[in-house]
Amino acid sequence: MKSIRNILYSTLLMIAPVVRAELPVKRVITLNVAKKIAAAAEAEANRRHLTAVIVVVDDGGYPLLLQRLDNTQVASVEVGIGKARTAAIFRRPSKDFEDQVKDGRIAALVLPGATPLQGGVPIILDGKVIGAIGVSGESPKDDEDVAKAGAAAAAAAIAAEGASRD
Question: pTM of the prediction?
């Protein structure tokens, strides 16, 4: 009986490193990185003299950070969250859904979790969506431009954080 137990333990010890090696590594947006993404978006909004709500979410669409710039309408809070969530969970800009509605596909209006309004942009690292940024407060084009400025800062913010941990 002891020899069978020893064989099982030996087998498990040999398999364990293989199983561990097969687990994927999931990159996530930390709060520090979310702050840098939002800061880049805020800088763009300020440069253009815009008011906006800026929301950074994780890959599941859950908020990591929300900023409402001075004098931004309160209604933009929920809209900004919706835009960011849409970009994260559908892994594409929220504008894609607005375009579908404009093109006559009104079924896009009832997709669970979708806010079909321009201004949500996925944050992509190594070809994978790791989160998104949503902006609401001004025109659809302005919202998206501010969101793109934030998303563009993500790679540098992530690289800087990785370098500081090394």
Answer: 0.84
